[in-house]
Amino acid sequence: MKKMNKVISLLVTVSVFSACSSSNDAATVTTAPTETTTTTIAVETQPSEIIPEGYVYVEFIDGMPDGWECADGWCNGSMFNVTWRKKNITFNDEKMQLIIDNDATPKDGVPYSGGEFRSTDFYGYGRYEVSMKAIKNDGVVSSFFTYTGPSDNNPWDEIDIEILGRDTTKVQFNYFTDSQGNHEYMHDLGFDAAEDFHTYAFEWHKDKIIWYVDGTEVYRATENIPVTESKIMMNAWCGKGVDGWLNAFDDTAVPLTAEYEWIRFTPFE
Question: Nearest CA to 267 among 124, 112, 98, 110?
Fold first, then answer.
């Protein structure tokens, strides 16, 4: 465990028998009390805040953080109608932007480019959080999730938070365990996720996954929970062949941008 120390000045009000000092320094206590007065004394303390080993907190104040990378030059295929491009990830106004755009150098019949950002390390049971603002546009997904799979010489395990651009008043949760998915759940947010930043989170336990929105639990799953340590990931992409899920992609307003303020992972002991 790590300790982060902070010095906090506490103002303590006490009743003492004293003669008032004309100085601005701390009150002087005499041996010949004459009256009861109330004196404010500054007391320095050294409380410690425990930071778990493996804790991660990422902001984008200084641009690209250490321990993270941008997908570049390849496509997932299947429903993904983008090639991941490093240039589609930018850092402005102390935030990260993931951009969907026309691809300047399209290949393999994929006309669009997208942004995918991920950790280089793998993480297990704990609380995963993000502050993000999604894209409102038919045919797109803005996401925050954990993933590992055959490219990491692992089974396909994944836990998802996905906001579909066709209706940004909802968020979809899902997970995969050894490639078995079909656990989708759609939650009504009560606000538009494309209008402002909100905090989305999930807790990954050995026997359950609990999803949160702005600190409030909104859903949990308790069957066939993933077990494989995974990378933390975010991406923004447009789909193909999944119009029943995302609606047909409307490219009239590209480039389209999802924004991220910060990411946090707190491991469980």
Answer: 124
Q: How many helices (H) and strands (E) does the chain have?
A: 1, 20
Q: Look at the chain and report how many structural domains it folds into.
A: 2
Q: What are residue 195's phi and psi, to 5 degrees?
A: -95, -25
- Confidence at residue 49, expressed as pLDDT on a 0 to 100 scale: 66
Which residue's entry shows tokens 């590992």?
148
pLDDT at 141 over 70: yes
- Domain span at residue 36? 2-50
**Would residue 203 show up in a list of annotated catalytic residues for this protein?**
no
Catalytic residue, from 129, 158, 203, 259: name it. 158
pTM: 0.82
Regarding whether 160 and 122 lie in a shared domain, the answer is yes
CATH of the domain at 88: 2.60.120.200
| Catalytically annotated residue among 162, 203, 259, 261 | 162
pLDDT digits (tens, 9 = 90+) for 221-256: 999 999 999 999 999 999 999 999 999 999 999 999
23 and 91 belong to one structural domain: no
Active site residue 162: yes
